[in-house]
Design a protein that fits this description.
Length: about 300
């Protein structure tokens, strides 16, 4: 099979490798698309080049021991921990979901994780229709869907925060009422902040909250807050991760996925994505690293598989 080989200090290249064999509890997936995100960019920057993971969409072609035969032949999408930029990848049932047969593969890849995070952080914020929302990292794979979901679920005002105002038109098309940069002051207060960037923006997000406002942090970028800035106006900060929920509340994730497929089918969310050939993964990585992406970036790992 074809796969990407990552090397420290060198451009990633396509090589030929043996097809992986599923072990106990694993599925073998013939992939259609694989995501390229900040996680991969950070791994490469840190010199961690061994089998980066992320999202895939594809079809189950093989089963390991202790896996239900019902999975065989299903079109699936979700998170894989390792070697996704290849024609075949190993997955576990707990972290993937069946993809409806009529859903475009690129839309599916954008939704199976980015959409799940976007809807999840809105749920975690206890968002209510009529409230205002500010979203950092708003042009990212999860961020642009959070903008759309906030709008379609009844937000009175959606503010998108980004690194570059060149993304303004894209975000207004996604449903943002206003676009601000990280370099400028955020003059208005909001009920909810969804922070997908971290660092100094966590405290700035807290400062932007109205009394009794809620911030949900879902970035791996870290950040610190001054607890005293929460007290007087009853503000709250919540962390969010799909990983824990997949282990402890799988039924909740299943319900959120069903909601996302319904919203997608009804045209109430429209994922944006850039799809490049597997050979162009270096360009895909640079697009994310330079934060020039608008929506989800992904590579086509193999010819699309037609659902049965």
């Amino acid at each position: 099979m074809r796969k990407i080989q990552f090397s420290t200090g060198a451009e990633p290249v396509v090589v030929t490798a043996a097809q992986p064999v599923p072990g106990p509890g694993q599925l073998l997936v013939r992939t259609e698309l694989a995501g390229v995100g900040l996680g991969l960019v950070r791994q490469l920057a840190a010199g961690e080049v061994d089998a980066p993971g992320g999202e895939i969409v594809g079809t189950v072609t093989g089963l390991g021991a202790d896996v239900s035969p019902e999975w065989l032949g299903k079109r699936v999408g979700g998170l894989v921990f390792g070697a996704i930029h290849a024609e075949y990848a190993l997955a576990v049932p707990q972290l993937i979901t069946e993809v409806p047969g009529d859903v475009d593969a690129a839309d599916a890849l954008a939704v199976v994780r980015g959409g799940l995070i976007a809807l999840g952080v809105l749920k975690a914020s206890r968002f209510r229709a009529g409230e205002s929302v500010l979203i950092t990292g708003a042009a990212s794979g999860a961020g642009h869907l959070a903008v759309q979901l906030a709008r379609t679920l009844g937000a009175a005002r959606v503010v998108a925060a980004v690194s570059d105002l060149a993304k303004s038109e894209f975000l207004r098309e996604c449903g943002a009422d206003a676009v601000v940069t990280y370099a400028e002051p955020w003059p208005e207060s909001v009920d909810v902040v969804l922070d997908g960037v971290g660092g100094d923006l966590v405290q700035r997000g807290v400062n932007a909250l109205a009394p009794q406002g809620r911030l949900v942090a879902f970035s791996a970028g870290g950040g610190a807050i001054d607890a005293s800035s929460l007290l007087g106006e009853l503000k709250t900060v919540t962390g969010f991760s799909v990983g824990l929920l997949s282990r402890t509340r799988p039924e909740l994730l299943q319900a959120w996925r069903a909601e996302l497929w319904e919203l997608l089918a009804a045209g109430r969310i429209r994922p944006r994505h850039v799809v490049l050939p597997l050979e162009n993964i270096g360009a895909a990585v640079e697009l994310v690293r330079s934060r020039r992406n608008q929506g989800r970036v992904m590579v086509r790992t193999a010819a699309a598989v037609v659902a049965g």
